[in-house]
Amino acid sequence: MADPKTLKYRLRPVEFKGKQTHIICYHNVPVWPTTVAVVNYFLLTDPSCFKFDKTVDFISVYDLRNMAASLGDKAVTHIKQDQTKDWTKDERKVATGASLSTLLQLDGSSIQPINIFTSGFLDSPIISTLCHLNIPILHG
Question: With 70 as the cut, is the pLDDT of residue 114 above it?
């Protein structure tokens, strides 16, 4: 695997429901699509839960990991309470904090990759929201 220090995601400004925010797009990191989708969902719906430099064009894998980790119980609470009542058990598992940190192991040795095309995750509210906005989920 490439050196994590050289892997970057592109930050892209978007307008969502009349407000300016940013979403994360792939640049040279063709991994962790579900993690990016979950972080993007919160960037769109509650960007105040993240603190990052919005003047930069790229963020590192470490930045993404920290953003995901900062969600913590918020992601779990969201999965349990919000627009997820129709989600499958696997979809809930994918988007919880524990799964986020599993997906974000940098050396890849203990990752069981989640294939979002066969897991049903593409039907989740997070993915459908991003698709509706024509935001690229997989790119790179």
Answer: no
State the Cα–Cα distance between residues 92 and 121, nearest whole angstrom.
Answer: 9
| Residue 137 within any structural domain of the chain | no
Pairing of strands 8-16, 19-26: antiparallel
**139 inside domain:** no
What domain count does the chain have? 1
Alpha carbons 45 and 31: distance in angstroms, whole number: 23
pTM, two decimal places:
0.50
Residue 60: domain span: 4-132
Residues 39 and 86: their CA atoms lie apart, in Å, by 20
b/e code 1-27 from CB counts within 10 Å (16+ = b): eeeeeebbbbbeebebeeeebbbbbbb
pLDDT tens string 64-113? 777 777 776 565 555 444 444 454 554 444 443 333 333 333 333 333 33
